[in-house]
Design a protein that fits this description.
Layout: H1 6-20, H2 33-42, H3 44-51, H4 74-80, E1 89-93, H5 99-107, E2 112-117, H6 120-129, E3 136-140, E4 153-159, H7 168-178, E5 179-192, H8 201-213, H9 222-231, E6 234-241, H10 247-261, H11 264-273, H12 276-293, E7 297-306
Parallel strand pairs: 1-2, 1-4, 2-3, 4-5
Antiparallel strand pairs: 5-7, 6-7
Length: about 300
């Protein structure tokens, strides 16, 4: 039997999800800081027991096509390789549980690392992860209103976090403000692709469902992000397409979601005992490989430099 067309499969999966979950309740999840905090607090179990027991909150990068948990360390390696010469001060936006900060602090003991995050519980976990690093610490903070002084950072980095900005121009303006001249911003994230509006309706609907399930409300395109960064005074000096590198992690998560989404009785029982946010994670996991495969989302590393 021939495999179903990707659009037909997305339509089927959307129907299955619609029969189980109230997808309309996702609409406002990522539009406010309080909604984003609530998403991460309620998603704790999913990140801890399904995604990464070591505290990673981002996709594993497996460039050779097979999922390995070591791939969770690749974003930190990529950031390390892009620290400007003579770096002394580095800031991570939305540091989560401190996974990336701990890896970078171990490799750069003479550099001061600071992380900020909206979720107080994640900041506490980050500081426990950083306990052995005297020059690294995390604090509660909003990257749209940084408490850091002008021109004090040699490098700012963000892994799968600027997608949560409710005001991207303000967030990137804050980054540009705290960077020293020629300081760098390293971003690893997902964006909508050019031509998104020309994709089939099912692909666009599934993309919106994925974004909202993960508390991403804006649905920003890569080109729009680069334009806003330029307006903020930063130029893109490198762009690396990592979309194929996340495919093994996406397939793994989709297989886990398939176990109960495709079995209505199991899914209905899960609604009774599982936190709603955990079920919403399943929405994203179930749809994401097809959304990415259909060309709606791209996952990339951008290195930007403050131009003034």
């Amino acid at each position: 039997m021939d495999a179903p067309h990707p659009v037909d499969e997305l339509e089927l999966r959307l129907r299955r999800l619609g029969a189980i979950f109230a997808l309309g309740r996702l609409d406002e999840q990522g539009t406010t800081s309080s909604g984003i905090r609530r998403y991460y607090r309620r998603s704790r179990l999913g990140y801890r027991f399904v995604h990464s027991r070591r505290g990673a909150m981002h996709m594993a990068l497996n460039e050779h096509g097979t999922f390995h948990r070591e791939g969770y360390e690749r974003q930190a390696e990529l950031v390390h390789d892009r620290l400007p010469p003579g770096t002394r001060h580095v800031l991570e936006l939305a540091c989560g549980n401190g996974f990336n900060l701990a890896l970078l602090a171990a490799r750069n003991p003479s550099v001061s690392f600071t992380g900020i995050d909206l979720v107080a519980a994640q900041v506490r976990r980050a500081n426990r992860a950083l306990a052995g690093h005297s020059r690294a610490a995390a604090a509660v903070g909003d990257f749209q209103a940084l408490g850091t002084g002008d021109g004090t950072q040699d490098c700012v980095f963000a892994v799968e976090s600027l997608c949560h900005a409710t005001d991207t121009p303000r967030a990137l303006g804050e980054v540009a403000r705290v960077l020293r001249p020629r300081g760098r911003l390293v971003v690893v994230d997902g964006w909508r692709t050019r031509g998104f509006e020309d994709l089939p309706v099912a692909v666009r609907d599934a993309t919106v469902a994925v974004e909202r399930a993960m508390a991403v409300s804006g649905g920003q395109s890569l080109e729009d992000f680069k334009r806003v960064a330029q307006d903020a005074g930063m130029a893109v000096i490198e762009e690396l397409d990592l979309t194929s590198w996340i495919a093994p992690n996406l397939r793994r998560l989709a297989c886990i979601a398939e176990r109960f989404v495709s079995h209505p009785r199991v899914a209905r029982a899960a609604r009774v005992v599982a936190p709603e946010a955990l079920l919403m994670n399943a929405v994203a996991a179930y749809l994401m490989p097809l959304v990415v495969g259909a060309g709606a989302h791209t996952y990339r590393l951008l290195t930007l430099e403050r131009t003034d």
